[in-house]
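protein under study:
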Amino acid sequence: MIQGYKLYDIVEMKKMHPCKKSKNWQIIRMGADIKVKCEGCGAIVMFSRHDFEKKAVRIILESDEE
């Protein structure tokens, strides 16, 4: 479970995306739900905040946005 993530951070998820190119996802929307974009194929998926926090492993790259 990760904490301290913010918009446009790139996070590593537990499982590989079915595109088989990446485990890394960029956060593109935050609220009650979190929308992320696959770094491998560009697919966009929305998770509830609870599910996202369970599936995310670590922050790969922090954004400069504040």
